[in-house]
Design goal:
Blueprint: H1 3-15, H2 20-27, E1 31-35, E2 39-44, H3 47-56, H4 58-69, E3 74-79, E4 85-86, H5 126-137, E5 146-149, H6 156-170, E6 176-180, H7 181-193, H8 197-205, E7 209-213, H9 222-237, E8 241-246, H10 258-264, E9 268-271, H11 277-291, H12 297-306, H13 311-328, H14 334-340, H15 355-366, H16 380-395, H17 401-407, H18 413-429, H19 431-444
Helix pairs in contact: 1-4, 2-13, 5-6, 11-12, 11-13, 15-16, 16-18, 17-18
Length: about 450
Amino acid sequence: MDSEAIWKNCLNVISAHVSPQHIATWFRPIKPAGANATHIELEVPNRFFLEWIKEHYLPLVEEALRQVSKKEVAILWKVGDEPATKAAAPKKKEKEKDTVKAPKQAGLNLNPKYIFENFVVGKANEFAHAACSAVANHLGSKYNPLFIYGCVGLGKTHLLQAIGHKVLQANPGSKVCYYTSERFVNDFINYVSRQKMSEFRSRFRNVDVLLIDDIQFWAGKEGTQEEFFHTFNTLYENHKQIVVTSDKFPKDLDRLEERLRSRFEWGLVADIQPPDIETKMAILRKKSKVEGVRLPDDVAGFLAEVNGSNVRELEGFLNRIIAVSSLTNKEIDLSMAKEALKHLVKVKEEKVVTIDEIQKAVASFYDIKYSDLKSKRRHKNIALPRQIAMFIAREYGGFSFPEIGSSFGGKDHSTAIHACKKIANELKENQDIRQAVKSLKQNIGIR
């Protein structure tokens, strides 16, 4: 295959592990510039781009090349008109110099950023986080196996790899094996064809911790399931820790053998639900801090709202904004964020009503001062109208929580979130509030 065909096939492999936003931002700009039997030359737009790829995606690119070429292939990186250079691992920060390096192990492909300290805990994931933390500290004796399930992009892989990092941090000599289910299948087929199954079994049955990601892809693959069944039994009998992830509860995994599904329920099953707005904003703050960039609240609010429930997609939006900011030397603000994502998300049309108009209408309706809505007064005759005004601004004006909070006396976005939740609940049971909102919508001109 020529370099273009190789890279095209690599993108197909990478696309199974990376969101479309990441593909568009970080992989489409990479151009194949030549290849031979031992290496491929890849051209990137600039040196910032190259450093980012090396730090965040180098192991993934190398693994994709390995799968496509069926052998080890060296990467020569070319930056614009600069001479091509060999791929190198990301530079370690000064504070990491004294850390103990764990021995290199087959199957140990842990993302350095997928650690417990970087995981944002919210109501939707606190149980799964606690279970993973407990497992990392009590291998094989507590919650074995641990089965984590939830929709795509909610943090299952992060927690799975965080266990591996925690174990190696506590005991660098531990044998930790992290594998995606797809790679497990590919390696299984490869070793069967080479008649080296003893090597394959040794890789997985002589570990202290086995971490398998997305086992739903084993549906219908009887040979793979048979092999893992015996691997599971060997590890379990020797009190070795097993952790797997899936997009469904064990009993809902169609075409997966009953004996496997029942074993997955021997220990603990923990689910991860989609995050709420507050958790998504916290995730964005944490990630922007890790990346060393300042993310304004209104931008965080905008990203949290245009994103559905996929945290991976949410982080992809942020990565794109950071990339645009760096490449264009523009400061991150709301208008820049909307421009950067205009082809990826549907941005709401310009609002037909302003928060100021809503505030004036509410103040008149309740016969209170306009300034009271922006004050810190908490008396019921002020607090309730303020909450209703925030609710209308959110539900019918389409304003973000940071925008609403800022417009009501510089309050935090969490105040706006609380107000909207409270009024939404009141509308279900309180006839007076339902009538008040209906009348206010008519007075403001909202259909």
